[in-house]
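Quick one:
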Amino acid sequence: VHDGYEWLYVLSGRMRLVLADQDFVLGEGEVVEFDTRLPHWFGSTGEGPAEVLSIFGRPGERMLVRAPGEGEAGMHPDTHPA
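Output:
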């Protein structure tokens, strides 16, 4: 448990995430975002290696998601460089 937010993206294999009282198994291409003030643990399921991209944000930071169709390369038209 610590302040901040974490984003996990499974690059290959399968990983297990224990988040508070929930237990998840995530596969290649799946992503999860969570508040790190919740008790958490993650690692391989034990069925083989898992390659995971982990991004940690400071307290109060949240990821800004831009959906396709909001301008070129998924960027909002107001933020696209001229």
